[in-house]
Amino acid sequence: MELLGKITADRPLLVLAVKEEAQFLETDLPVLLTGMGKVNAATALAIALGRGPRPSGIVNLGTAGALLPGMSGTHVIGTVVQHDFDGRLLATLTGESYGAPLTLPDGGDTVLATGDTFISDETARARLAEQAALVDMEGYALAHAAAIAGVPLRIVKHVSDEAGEGAARTWRESVAECARALAEWAEANTPYRS
User: Fold this and answer.
1) Taking phi first (over 0 means left), then psi (-120 to 50 degrees means alpha), and beta for anything else, what does residue 58 get?
2) Labelling 154: which of 9, 48, 126, 134 has CA 20 to 30 A away?
3) What phi, psi does 45 have (nearest 5°)?
4) Predicted structure pTM score
5) Straight-line distance from the first to the last Cα atom of the chain, in angstroms, rounded to the nearest whole number
6) 3-state helix, strand, coil in the chain (%, to 5)
7) Contact 159/67 with Cβ under 8 angstroms?
8) What DSSP string runs through 73-135?
9) Which of 154, 138, 165 is nearest to 63 (CA)?
10) pLDDT (tens digit per residue) in 37-75
């Protein structure tokens, strides 16, 4: 976890998993680098929000794998689900519901599936494509932590790979281009500079 800049109540907080995704951000806004995965994302954001003050909003910028053919570019996420959490089974055991899909108020129609597995095989990709268009490793965790804290969140993902065979290589090769696109989106859609 690394916080660059100072969180204030009158500005949003930009949240990214790793420095490779943030490499072209030249902003006055605070930037939180959480590390990869749901645990790192939720923990880092909870710590940042718990230290106060809370930001006016949170913008998660990051890369995502495409689950559907032809998906490319930058997408504002409308709904986020967990693909590696069996909430139905837990409900039968405990009678409690956990891990329901989260709808983001300023999002679009794109559904993002989050899990702690880097999707790089065709079988997993096909299974996930039944419920989502994109896949990442942090979005749901950030949405959950932001909702509990009462801070509005936008999730913005740029497609880095096709979440199939060769995805890891493709991510490494495309992360700089993705980072540039994410920085351009942030400059156009946030109070990027004071």
Assistant:
1) beta
2) 126
3) -65, -40
4) 0.92
5) 25
6) 35, 25, 40
7) no
8) SEEEEEEEEESS--HHHHHHHHS---S--EE-TT--SEEEEE-SS---SHHHHHHHHTT-SEE
9) 138
10) 999 999 999 999 999 899 999 999 999 999 999 999 999
